[in-house]
């Protein structure tokens, strides 16, 4: 039996990016039950990819009851629906076998990974205050992509002088803007810029010097995306809601590294259930950005542990 429910998690504070603000995370939870054993997974439908709660739920409900992970890869395209079901099937297999998912996948035992913490888009003064509050964190992420980016970045650096900083431009720049900003980004110690140009317009990055490394986010969904990234990006951001689950995420990670890309593992704003499989993909990643639960006012039971060592692998009571 495949069951789909909608869950809402309140955010700890209003979260703003260049595309808008939100006060809650709306997710779909999938439970697959067979022979009295239930595995579960979570996805976050994303409007940027023409997904809604309704459309993704309909995709999930279209699946035959006995589908396995192999058949799932053919039945649904990469995206949120396939992600939730794929992760639920991994969890189910682990519970049926009495083993952890990492063992089933042939992976080494996972360890904590230092994760970025995302600062909400706000006035420079407010962002400086946010940065100061979280200056103890080793890696801060800033959502930019507006005409007022530099004052915000300067403010964050003033608030957190010792933290590494990465930037997500959310498709809001042009190649010319990146080139103009690059010297200032270097001066302020920015380690990475995610998706500076719209995914459909990033050919403009061909031949552009990249003194600050660029990471493909909206331009990279699964392994089929890789050929179009050559000469434009230095890193790929792997998100399970884009790859369509852990199965493809692990394959994309290996393929990207084989082609010389660094790996970042990111997330949508979701609960610990959504992050748990991603922690396995994030092992050894150059950048881990799995702070979704840190932005929530409430979380799942047996939630992931975040401490000075980073985000810890899930306990079996949560997932996997």
Topology, element by element:
Elements: E1 2-17, E2 20-34, E3 37-43, H1 53-61, H2 69-75, H3 80-97, H4 101-104, E4 117-119, H5 124-133, E5 139-143, H6 149-159, E6 164-168, H7 175-187, E7 190-194, E8 214-216, E9 235-238, H8 240-243, H9 246-258, E10 262-265, H10 272-281, E11 287-288, E12 306-307, E13 310-311
Parallel strand pairs: 4-5, 5-6, 6-7, 7-8, 8-9, 9-10, 10-11
Antiparallel strand pairs: 1-2, 2-3, 12-13
Helix pairs in contact: 1-3, 5-6
Rg, Cα atoms, Å: 19 Å
Q: What general outline do the C-alpha atoms trace?
A: globular
Mean pLDDT: 95
Number of helices: 10
Strand content: 15-25%
Rounded to the nearest angstrom, the distance between the terminal CA atoms is 19 Å
Classification by helices and strands: alpha/beta
Please summarize what this structure is.
This protein is 31% helix and 23% strand.
Explain what the structure shows.
Helix 6 links the parallel strand 5 and strand 6. Helix 1 packs across helix 3 and helix 5 packs parallel to helix 6. The protein starts with a strand and ends in a 9-residue tail after the last strand. Strands 4-5-6-7-8-9-10-11 form an eight-stranded parallel β-sheet. The chain has a three-stranded antiparallel β-sheet with strand order 1-2-3. With 320 residues, the chain is of the alpha/beta class. The longest helix has 18 residues. The protein is built from ten helices and 13 strands. The model has no long low-confidence stretch (mean pLDDT 95). 31% of the residues lie in helices and 23% in strands.
């Amino acid at each position: 039996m495949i069951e789909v429910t909608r869950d809402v998690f309140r955010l700890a504070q209003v979260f703003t990016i260049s595309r808008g603000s939100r006060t809650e995370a709306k997710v779909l939870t999938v439970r697959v039950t067979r022979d009295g054993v239930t595995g579960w997974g979570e996805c976050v439908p994303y409007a940027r990819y023409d997904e809604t709660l309704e459309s993704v739920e309909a995709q999930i409900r279209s699946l035959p009851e006995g589908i396995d992970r192999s058949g799932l890869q053919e039945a649904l395209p990469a995206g949120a629906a396939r992600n939730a079901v794929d992760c639920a099937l991994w969890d189910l297999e682990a519970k049926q076998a009495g083993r952890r998912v990492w063992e089933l996948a042939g992976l080494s035992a996972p360890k904590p990974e230092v994760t970025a913490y995302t600062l909400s888009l706000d006035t420079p003064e407010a962002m400086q205050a946010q940065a100061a509050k979280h200056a103890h964190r080793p890696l801060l992420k800033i959502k930019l992509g507006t005409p007022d980016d530099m004052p915000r970045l300067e403010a964050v650096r003033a608030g957190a002088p010792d933290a590494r900083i990465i930037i997500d431009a959310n498709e809001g720049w042009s190649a010319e803007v990146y080139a103009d900003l690059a010297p200032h980004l270097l001066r302020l110690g920015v380690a990475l810029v995610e998706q500076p140009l719209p995914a459909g317009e990033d050919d403009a990055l061909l031949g552009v010097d990249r003194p600050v490394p660029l990471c493909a986010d909206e331009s990279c969904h699964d392994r089929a995306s890789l050929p179009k990234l050559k000469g434009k990006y230095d890193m790929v951001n792997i998100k399970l809601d884009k790859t369509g689950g852990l199965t493809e995420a692990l394959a994309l990670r290996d393929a990207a590294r084989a082609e010389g890309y660094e790996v970042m593992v990111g997330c949508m704003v979701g609960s610990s259930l959504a992050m748990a499989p991603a922690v396995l993909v994030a092992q050894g990643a150059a950048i881990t950005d799995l702070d979704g639960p840190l932005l929530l006012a409430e979380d799942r039971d047996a939630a992931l542990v975040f401490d000075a060592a980073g985000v810890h692998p899930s306990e079996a009571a949560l997932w996997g």
